[in-house]
Amino acid sequence: MKKMKQMVLPKYFKEIDGEIWLIEDERENMKLSYRVKEILSVSKSIFQQVSIIDTYDFGRCLVLDGVIQTTQIDGFIYNEMISHVPLLTHKNPKNVLIIGGGDCGVAKELSKYSTVDRIDMVEIDELVVQESIKSLPEISGDVHKDSRIRFIFEDGVKYIKDKKEEYDIAIIDSSDPIGPAEVLFSEGFYVDLKKSIKEDGLMVCQSQSPVFHKDILIKTQNILKKHYPIVNTYKAVVPSYPGGMWSFTLASLKYNPLEACVENLSKDTKYINKEIFRSAFNLPSFIREYLE
């Protein structure tokens, strides 16, 4: 507590009855509150405020501008689902592009496959990577020691517009569609991204909560259906995310995730398994209704 009081706390931290709480302003009608054991660091990059905190229920968390991005307790769920699903869908993935992914969790999951030759991680904010490697090793792993992983600290939009490489898989691991991440949900971005994907390539993005952000999910699927012959939305339960249920949308030029060889799934996972992989594409009726 002493350490906390010595800091000038950002506005999203509040002291209530002698305890520090993170108040996440999710939407106009909903705020999420987390009791904090310790604020480990608060840093400011030119893009955003980066905090690492230790909470009572979710362990250590990465917080960007007051919004939790990943946690020790459930961060592996999101990272496994956005990584292993596209990797198993593609028949022979060698080169993978990550746009975003500053906590390094996606890179860690991809590195579990020896068949992958190169992982290019394009993250606009180097500070997020530095803080995650230093304070969230359960999430980032030893990615900084893996020679296959190339860190590119650059605007992902600019990177793909320059079309420097062609990839088998592109993973868009963005934060919420506000601030620097907003453009990552636009049609122009997806059109440019397709030019960086090989003829049999595929991409996947997180498409927000199917409960609270269904407009974003619908928009994402509609855009991708205009440019890819195979588009599938799948889901996972991530307790620290608003509403619990989260969606991902995979768009492929050739391979169908429903025909993926799940036997190749890494054995080093905590959430995804063969059954979860298949069932993730079985959407609840209310989601099917507004996507069809």
How would you describe what is shown here?
By secondary structure, the protein is α/β, with parallel strands linked by helices. It has 2 domains: 2-71, Spermidine synthase, tetramerisation domain (Spermidine Synthase, Chain: A, domain 2); 75-291, 3-Layer(aba) Sandwich (Rossmann fold). 28% of the residues lie in helices and 32% in strands. It has a 7-stranded mixed beta sheet, sandwiched between helices. Strand 1 (13-16) and strand 2 form a beta hairpin. The protein is globular and about 55 Å long.
Layout of strands and helices, then pairs:
Blueprint: H1 2-6, E1 13-16, E2 19-27, E3 30-44, E4 49-55, E5 59-64, E6 67-71, H2 75-89, E7 95-100, H3 105-110, E8 118-122, H4 126-135, H5 137-140, E9 149-152, H6 156-162, E10 167-173, H7 187-195, E11 197-206, H8 214-225, E12 230-237, E13 245-252, H9 274-279, H10 285-291
Parallel strand pairs: 7-8, 7-10, 8-9, 10-11
Antiparallel strand pairs: 1-2, 2-3, 3-4, 4-5, 5-6, 11-13, 12-13
